[in-house]
Design a protein that fits this description.
With 446 residues, the chain is of the alpha/beta class. 41% of the residues lie in helices and 16% in strands. The chain starts with a helix and ends with a helix. Bound molecules: iron/sulfur cluster.
């Protein structure tokens, strides 16, 4: 639990020497309690007090890392219950489940589907990050499937409560920092030992919230804190309640016992109904699945789920921006035109998509427009004749081009006259108002 200002005050030397910049130790303690000041600002604080405070001021929800290298992802680490309060930080990851009961055709089909769903949306690569492999009793088949899934280069979630099978499976993939979901009240000590030895993240299973609380406490006593909590799959309502209870207990109740990421097996809840599975996955992206396990993935369910995830895990306080610079399409030459757009990511990706569709060599000038759309940035004074002219002058395009044509977005045609004054020698052309008109416009441009 977090310490109150009074509790922190009792840990200070109570000298009121003002060296921390506050008039009294009490004033300093209140600021530390609110998170506005670091305890290190007091040069007289004891090591013992520092240790107590470090524990008390640690994040309420732990950030757990899984995977390695380019495939490493962080889970948890959230600080708010609702995205609009601040932001969510570590996106939900998607898993597709396999099992040793699956025949080769089904295995190959799901693997192929995972490979197919891989596309870019607003600068983010959309694909399934995890393969979950469930053990149902056929050990040699289980290990064989894990070996075959390695070619996908995904993070593994081993779903297995048999310690011997889990030990063999972990040995195959432990260097990739997988998750092992299978520790329970009966096998906890052996599973913690295995997780410690293999350096893997341990997923805990319990029949209810109270049992899960006791299980996490027991795991802490065994000295392990790289954990994920299984929200269960008894029924939809119970699983939802569990996921919310974990998060509320950690962030509102300030109890770190439940301050861990969660995993939700929506495939088990949906019982083969793919529409229900997609609806449940959407629910648990919002509340509060850190890993959502699906039976399969196709574009039909990936498109809405990945879009929702991107929306939920985008910081609402920051406009989605691309880097202001000159982008090149289809190897532009010294007589290629220069289109202008803004650095608002959605606008950029719509415009660049249409330019690619046109297959015409062009430069695309993206000035710093504050991450706003064309009309909004113009209305806010962020996209003006001066801003565009300065971006051209600092881009090096004037030296590179022997024919200087600048295509303005149609929505800011009003800037044409001012830009002509700012950029003598340039032909200023008013382009389309809508991005979808760009291919026709470029193909007809002389
Ligand atoms: S520096 Fe430490 S001892 Fe001095 S007033 Fe601040 S908290 Fe108190």
């Amino acid at each position: 639990m977090a310490l109150s200002g009074i509790e922190i005050f009792k840990l200070t030397p109570r000298k009121n020497c003002k060296e921390c910049g506050f008039p009294t130790c009490m004033a300093f303690a209140m600021k530390v309690a609110s998170g506005a000041v670091e305890i290190e600002k007091c040069p007289h604080i004891s090591a013992e007090a520092k240790e107590k405070l470090a524990e008390a001021t640690a994040p309420l929800m732990k950030t757990v890392k899984i995977g390695t290298g380019d495939y490493e992802h962080a889970l948890g680490g959230e600080t708010v219950l609702f995205r609009h309060e601040k932001t969510f930080v570590n996106k939900t990851l998607f898993a597709v489940q396999f099992s040793d009961a699956m025949d080769d055709d089904e295995l190959a089909r799901r693997m192929e589907n995972i490979k197919k769903v891989d596309y870019e949306r607003i600068g983010e690569q959309m694909h399934v990050e995890i393969v979950a492999v469930k053990y149902t009793g056929n050990r040699s088949r289980y290990l064989d499937i894990i070996k075959r899934l390695k070619e996908l280069q995904k993070i593994f979630v081993l779903v297995c409560d048999d310690v011997d099978a889990a030990t063999e499976a972990a040995a195959l993939v432990k260097e990739t920092k997988p998750v092992l979901v299978g520790a329970n009240n009966d096998n906890l000590e052996e599973m913690v030992k295995l997780a410690k030895e293999s350096g893997i993240v341990l997923g805990l299973n319990a029949p209810g919230v109270e049992e899960m609380y006791a299980l996490v406490e027991k795991t802490h006593q065994l000295g392990y804190k790289e954990l994920i909590l299984n929200a269960g799959s008894e029924n939809m309502a119970k699983t939802f309640e569990n996921a919310v209870e974990f998060r509320r207990t950690a962030l509102v109740g300030q109890d770190r016992t439940f301050g861990y990421p969660s995993i939700v097996f929506v495939n088990e809840l949906a019982k083969g109904d793919s529409y229900l599975q997609t609806a449940l996955a959407a629910t648990f992206i919002m509340k509060y699945g850190s890993i959502v396990v699906l039976d399969d993935i196709t574009y039909a369910n990936a498109l809405p789920l990945f879009a929702l995830r991107q929306n939920i895990f985008t910081d609402p306080q920051k406009p989605m921006r691309v880097e202001p610079k000159v982008y090149e399409f289809a190897n532009p030459k010294e007589d290629s035109p220069v289109l202008v757009t803004v650095d608002f990511a959605l606008t950029y990706f719509v415009v660049s998509g249409e330019i690619e569709r046109a297959k015409v060599p062009v430069y695309l000038l993206v000035p710093d427009a504050g991450g706003l759309s064309v009309l909004t940035s113009w209305a806010a004074g962020k996209l003006s004749a001066g801003v565009i002219a300065n971006a051209i002058k600092s881009s090096g395009l004037e030296e590179k081009l022997n024919r200087k044509r600048l295509i303005l977005p149609g929505k800011v045609a009003v800037l044409k006259g001012d830009i002509e004054e700012e950029l003598p020698g340039w032909e200023i052309i008013v382009g389309p108002s809508e991005a979808m008109q760009i291919p026709k416009f470029l193909n007809e441009l002389n």
